[in-house]
Write a structure and sequence with these properties.
Blueprint: H1 7-29, E1 33-38, E2 42-43, E3 50-59, E4 64-67, E5 74-79, E6 82-85, E7 91-95, E8 98-106, E9 111-118, E10 122-124, E11 129-141, E12 156-160, E13 167-168, E14 172-179, E15 182-183, E16 188-193, H2 196-199, E17 217-220, E18 226-230, E19 235-248, E20 251-264
Parallel strand pairs: 2-11, 11-20, 13-20
Antiparallel strand pairs: 1-3, 3-4, 3-8, 5-6, 5-9, 7-8, 9-11, 10-11, 12-14, 14-15, 14-18, 16-17, 16-19, 19-20
The structure holds copper (II) ion.
Amino acid sequence: MSQKISLPKRKTMLFLATIVLVLTLNLQTFAHFQMILPSIDVLEDEDNKTIELQLIFTHPSEASHTMDMEIPRKFGVYHQGRHKDLTSTLEQIEFANAKAWKTSYPIRGLGDFVFYLKPQPYWEPMDDTYITQITKIVVNSMGVPTDWDVELGLEAEIVPLTRPYGLWSGNVFQGIVKQNGVAVPFAEIEIEHLNAEAFSGLNDSQYRFPTSAHPTQIIKADQNGVFTFGIPKAGWWGFAALLEGEQIQGQSQELGAVMWIKAYDI
Ligand SMILES: [Cu+2]
């Protein structure tokens, strides 16, 4: 039996549909990305060996509103089989009117230094969920590859299949999405380019996106949790695999596995 919907009811439904649409649009155009932003990605002989790292929770592509970060649960570095906890070295800073963190780290020796961050869960009222994005970045010294493909065994982790530095724009980047060491088939991954010029406050540096679907790229992993993305432009690119985490006090938690890479034009 077909149901007829009376006019006032239809109006209400239209209204509700509009609200849902607006909320959905917000979700799509406000992808959150936890960043570890190092002052340099590959150190050469002549470079200062003490690097700076900033921990920022933001919307990198639109360079819009940046979220306050509480002191991270853990920030550390892995190199040649050794972990170093850097949490106590973090200093609070302000970045785009929000609370962020920074530290400096002296790079000793050659090879890969894998920095990893476990932030405190962030309550996002707009999405009615906690967001926890566990983030990784590899800084290399002197172009010698050592640890870049390591799996640290994080709760949520992107394990790169492509060396995550020394990349050209036009390369593809591949990785495996893992949750507690297990590959996540068909995981959804959001990808954004860091709009560095806008963040540094230069005038007229806003991107003009052709549509509202462009700031955040969305791909899915295959049945083995492997994803592939063709890098269209030089700069920093963030990958956030969005997973379902454990509830926190009855509220849902979106668990993210995040990794950042930097590409250069050939
Ligand atoms: Cu936000």
